């Protein structure tokens, strides 16, 4: 059970998700007996602790949570924590940095600091946030359940342990994929805001019919709002104007169709472009590449 303190959490912005350069510093799969304990301690980097079986209790700052199989905890260097195996447990632990110029692992063991019980109880967990393309700051979950992470976690452990040629850059790629999966899971499971609900009819219309040349008036009417209010609300929720959002959706689908082997004239017609020339020009304006260059 999570116990939330009455304080507000300090924000720590980790940067943009598009600029991540994660480095895996340490990765292992371990089996431990009941009552095994780590901490209270402070680590020099970030850690993902994923419980595969058994039960564990973790305290991060003033919060306490009991992990069951499939549960994970995500925390960083800015506050103390403690982990206790309440019964025999199997877990995967990954130490990493979100942004590091070098992919060379830096083992955290020599920089882990012990701390007092008093310091653990007095600390407050920071709110770690990543910036999304929409400029929204998304808080990363300190505790979450996502059992399907096990395959990628095991791949990270295997690459780290075996140290085959290219393992450092492959670890960076796998860690990027892992962080992206956590972010997408957070976006999917978080409750929608009331403002997001207000523009859902327009989003659904664009997603279902991206080939239609939707006007802002038409989209605003679907939501039942004046066009000025709707446009302002739409940009606030998505980071884009309705027109740009429609273009983005078309380009996203165009990429999929191109990589699926469809011809450009078919794609242009399917997505509502008047000609292949206009489609190609719009595609390059948005991506910096022609459709052919992108496909190649």
TrEMBL record:
CDD domains: cupin_XRE_C. Transmembrane segments: none annotated. Residues 200-296 form the HTH araC/xylS-type domain. SUPFAM superfamilies: Homeodomain-like, Regulatory protein AraC. Pfam families: Cupin_2, HTH_18. PANTHER family: ARAC-FAMILY TRANSCRIPTIONAL REGULATOR (PTHR43280), RCS-SPECIFIC HTH-TYPE TRANSCRIPTIONAL ACTIVATOR RCLR (PTHR43280:SF11). This is HTH araC/xylS-type domain-containing protein. It comes from Paenibacillus glycanilyticus.
């Amino acid at each position: 059970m999570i116990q939330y303190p009455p304080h507000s959490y300090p924000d720590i912005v980790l940067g943009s998700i598009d600029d991540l350069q994660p480095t895996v510093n340490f990765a292992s799969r371990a089996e431990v007996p009941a009552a095994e304990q780590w901490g209270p301690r402070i680590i020099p980097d970030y850690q993902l602790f994923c419980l595969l079986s058994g039960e564990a209790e973790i305290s991060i700052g003033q919060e306490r949570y009991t992990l069951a199989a499939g549960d994970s905890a995500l925390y960083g260097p800015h506050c103390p924590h403690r982990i206790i195996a309440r019964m025999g447990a199997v877990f995967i632990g990954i130490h990493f940095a979100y942004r590091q110029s070098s992919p060379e692992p830096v083992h955290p063991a020599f920089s882990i600091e012990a701390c007092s019980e008093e310091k653990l109880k007095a600390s407050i967990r920071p709110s770690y946030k990543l910036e999304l393309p929409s400029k929204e700051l998304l808080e990363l979950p300190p505790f979450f359940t996502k059992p399907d992470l096990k395959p990628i976690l095991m791949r990270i452990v295997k690459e780290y342990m075996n140290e085959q040629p290219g393992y450092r850059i492959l670890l960076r790629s796998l860690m990027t994929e892992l962080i992206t999966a956590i972010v997408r899971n957070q976006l999917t499971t978080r409750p929608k805001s009331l403002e997001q609900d207000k523009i859902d009819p327009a989003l659904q219309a664009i997603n279902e019919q991206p080939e239609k040349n939707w006007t802002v008036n038409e989209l605003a009417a679907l939501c039942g709002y004046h066009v000025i209010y709707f446009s302002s609300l739409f940009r606030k929720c998505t980071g884009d104007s309705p027109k740009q959002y429609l273009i983005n959706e078309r380009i996203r689908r165009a990429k999929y169709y191109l990589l699926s082997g469809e011809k450009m004239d078919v794609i242009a017609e399917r997505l509502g472009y008047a000609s292949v020339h206009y489609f190609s020009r719009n595609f390059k304006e948005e991506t910096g590449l022609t459709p052919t260059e992108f496909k190649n």
